[in-house]
Design goal:
This protein is mainly α. It has 4 helices and no strands. The relative contact order is 0.21.
Length: 101
């Protein structure tokens, strides 16, 4: 998932998550819905091979699970004291990703 946006951008990101979930539901396929690469999570890995493996695992994720994650993030609220959060981010771990265990 993408890092939390500032308060001013939060509504825009929530709308993006909802639209992305709808696009995935319409195609039933993450890769097809992600032709522009905007749905893909920000993959961080210490190696290029690890990042590629994470992308492959993401492509295998059931569409309904990814849609639920997108809608869950869109429905969430920012913390009331966002300035106290030094690194606001939602981490989505994938089964089989050695860096997520």
């Amino acid at each position: 998932m993408r890092p939390l946006a500032t308060t001013a951008m939060w509504a825009t990101w929530c709308n993006f998550y909802k639209a992305a979930a709808q696009a995935v539901e319409q195609t039933g396929n993450l890769e097809e819905a992600d032709r522009r690469g905007k749905l893909r999570a920000a993959f961080a890995s210490s190696t290029e091979e690890g990042a590629e493996e994470a992308i492959q695992l993401w492509k295998q994720m059931p569409a309904e699970i990814y849609c639920a994650a997108l809608r869950g993030q869109a429905a969430s609220q920012l913390p009331p004291n966002l300035e106290l959060v030094h690194c606001p981010v939602l981490i989505l771990a994938l089964p089989g990703d050695p860096e997520s265990t």
